[in-house]
Amino acid sequence: MFHRICLCAFVMLTLAGQASAQETWREYSYADDGFAISAAVPPLKETRKTTLSKVAVEVHSYSFFPPPPGTVFIVSVTALAAGDKRSDEDVVKDFVKGKESEPVAQSGLQGAQMSSVQGDYNQVIRVFAKDHRLYQLSITAPSAQPPHPQAERWLESWRILMPQATQ
Is the dihedral of CA 90, 94, 97, 101 positive or negative? Predict the structure, then answer.
């Protein structure tokens, strides 16, 4: 009987610790890429090269894998080519051209949101452009699962950083 009580207490304390760890979010700022986002742990950063409008560009991706396994939250930042003269609004319009999207506003910016099913996964993508950067916020999750309980919190936590005053 004593062992059952100890086992129950251990399980309850473990679950309580996991729940509180999942709720302990903080903001992570990335000044070089001009944004901040909240998560339970620091997002993992990856850099890769790709082609955008026939020009080689660098993409910085910040990934957060919330429990339970299978879901990923990603912020991707693409610095547009120096010769790209499009306005921020045109960058977003070009990105969503031919795709079903709806307008979305966040952090003082106008953007677009798209939803899709890719195989066994649902995906939501928000797209914004600011200061010659394309920002993509994406959530990919198994379609067999309900929407992740922290998805909206994560999406809404993203914000553009204000430029630092020079001295």
Answer: negative
